[in-house]
Amino acid sequence: MSPRPKKIRQCQGNFCGRAFKPTGTPFSKLDRIELFRDELEALRLCDRDGLTQEEAGKFMGVSRGTIQRIVATARKKLATALSEGKAIVFVDDEEPDLKTDLPQESE
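Structure (tokenized):
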């Protein structure tokens, strides 16, 4: 049995760059954690803008439970990246080229 198709999520926020990394370490030497557009959008709505999970779900066109799962996953990824010095790579499901267009050695 195949899984249910992923519901389209309405995301208005934009990435500010392709990745976020600790200073002083070349990007090529860092472990990477992928953060998807819907994860960043859910964090923006709930944590930055102060919306409830229910309000954020209506805004994004998904259920409160889906927002709860997205936010929990995104927070865990960010906490891991920040505490372990890993790079956060922004991934957009709609633009697969973003994943390959990453900073080079000198950055």
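The mean pLDDT is 84. The longest strand covers residues 32-36.
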